Amino acid sequence: MGVALWLCPKQNSTINDKLTTLMSSLNTLFPGQAPKFDPHITITTNVDINLDDPQQTREDVDRILSSCAAAIHSLPKNHSNLVTLGRINSQRMFFKKLYFQVGRDPNLISFARIIRELFVILPQDIELENQKINPHLYSTNSNGILKRKKSKKNRSNNEPNPATKEVDLKFVQERAAYKAAEWSAHEFDPHLSLAYSEIYPIDNALWRTIKTRISDYLNIENCDAPDLIDNGYGWDGGVLKLVLCEGDVNEWITLGTVDIH
To answer: From the centroid of its chain, how far is CA 33?
Structure first.
């Protein structure tokens, strides 16, 4: 997943406290030591950040979080909650073992599309286009991965190598916008995970216990209802976090955060 952008409820908010308590309780129902993580919705994974240079990492994180905050503030104010929790679900996947579906609010979808375009697809496509038209700028490392060479300037006039071609940025941007729109329509699946686990399937007895705990903690009469909109669970604003999701879940690193008012 690389670096992911999370949208979280505000610390010390009622919804954050309720979800944190619920998640801690549900974790005890799964075998082994289920990993702990903050309540969040993943807006996108594979955010393009330079992780090789600490100074550049810090600059990338600040720039991206600032842009994300501006994007979310620019959304129309025609919703009560940007995030609305829906029905409880489970899949075979480790990261979707137990989760709340999240309503596909048009503003949430728009926000995810913008971020995916600007900070995932566009930088990837620019790099791929550069590799295609300027192969002399790259070399293959010991793992067979193309890496950009350190830039060399012309010694006489300090200008870049004249053989280097310019990327058709307009074309790449238009293509990135199309890809992001397709992704947001067909792949983006907003959800709030409650537990990560390898167990599959969740048997009927465990499901009954899970639903009982959710009902008790959130005071929900019917966990099998199509959604929880009538219960008012969700949030607007919150906290954006860039999280390095590599290795064990308990070792994930928060690179930076910004509050959304």
So the answer is: 24
Catalytic-role residue among 79, 136, 191, 261 = 191
- Cα of first residue to Cα of last residue in the chain, in angstroms, is 27
40 counts as catalytic: yes
12 compared with 155, residue with greater pLDDT: 12
Residue 119: how many other CB atoms lie within 10 Å: 24
* Domain count within the chain: 1
> What average pLDDT does this structure show over 66-84?
91
What average pLDDT does this structure show over 73-100?
Answer: 90
Q: How far apart are CA 244 and CA 1, in angstroms?
A: 8
CA 123, 181, 237: angle at the middle one, nearest 5? 85
Helix (H) or strand (E) holding 20: helix 14-27
pLDDT at 144 over 90: no
Closest CA to 46 of 128, 122, 102: 122
In which residue are the tokens 């860039």 written? Answer: 242
191 catalytic per annotation: yes
CATH number where 222 lies: 3.90.1140.10
Q: Residues 6 or more apart from 83 whose CB is under 8 A from it?
A: 7, 9, 41, 102, 103, 105, 108, 190, 192, 234, 235, 236, 238
Looking at residues 111-133, what average pLDDT do you find? 94
Q: What pLDDT, on the 0 to 100 scale, is given for residue 155? A: 46
Taking residues 55-66, report their average pLDDT.
98
